[in-house]
Amino acid sequence: MKDPVYVILLAGGSGSRMGAGINKVLLPLGGTPCIARSAEIFRAFADRMVLVCRPEESEAIQKAIRPLSLPFPVDFVPGGDTRQQSVANGLSALPSDGESAAMVLVHDGARCLADPALVSRVLADVTVFGSGVASVGVTDTVKETDLSGFVSRTIDRSSLRAVQTPQGFRLKDLRFAHEKAAEDGFEGTDDAALMEHAGYPVHLSEGSRRNLKLTTKEDLIMAEAFLADDSPLPPYRVGMGYDVHRLTEGRKLILCGVEVPYSLGLLGHSDADVALHALMDALLGAAGLWDIGHHFPDTDARYKGISSMLLLDQVLEALREKGFVPSNVDLTIVAQQPKLSPYIPRMVENLSRALSLPADRVNVKATTTEHLGFEGRGEGISAQAVCMIRQI
Prior knowledge:
By secondary structure, the chain is an alpha/beta fold. It folds into two domains: 5-229, Spore Coat Polysaccharide Biosynthesis Protein SpsA, Chain A, CATH 3.90.550; 236-391, CATH 3.30.1330.50. The chain has twelve helices and 18 strands. The protein has a seven-stranded mixed β-sheet. The radius of gyration is 25 Å and the shape is elongated.
């Protein structure tokens, strides 16, 4: 079971430097509110999100993210007078026990162009080093000035990094860092500074030049340009999968992770879940990632008898690394016997949970061939799957 991942999404900015008259996170970017884009970044990673905002803007922000149908709970808490107090308020809303391995990502809601690959890098560094802070190298020449406006020295930029978010830490460590900062009266500009103050080593993760923070009108123009550059093709792809397994004695019949009572089961190297195999091939094909035979060869003893639900988790991780998540799936199982309709609701529930999709975006059907072909003769079961994935 993976360590829980919590996200604190900060959305309390005023947008005064943007001159927009409203909170900048509510401004549309490519037709979508910035805060919705920021929340969407964590769809495939978060177990819970705490959205920190001003109470009077809570309703507007809830309305902005509602169409996302996020697969995890979102709690709204009021912000503080400073960024540091706002994060502390977010931390107070997270579970306080059983969290020794829990990770927390703190992200500015105004950084809505971060991508899943960046989140993956940060989380990987938290797992290995205890912290991961998105950052990029400084490309401008940096000068230090005296009080009269003259250059006092030129700073070597080779060791300088510009820090971004998300910033990831162990939850218990960040809590301690905030408590110590409060005790010492220390005020930091970000959570990495609080961790440094508390004596923790802070590891920098590779960020992204696109991960800009929307602060001025010029930032908004650049963000729109990034989106336009990304859209010569629609951000959607379609995949199709097909698989067949022979029915045999002495095997369980597993379909979409559900054990179906029957005298015969499907023959295969893994649990031979023909429905999930078709679905995985559809997902991999849509992302241009070969097929399940390439990723899980039947010559590899690691996959002997393995649950295909576990293999599906690995396929989804491969999609996330390439920047894709499923949008909807449609699956047809072809079997003369047994009758599958009583088990379809559980199949949909399994897939909905695994794919982080609402149930109305997961469709499973069962049909017969009127006794025609190998399925009709009861020799085997086939499955066909169609899916749409989207780039995020």
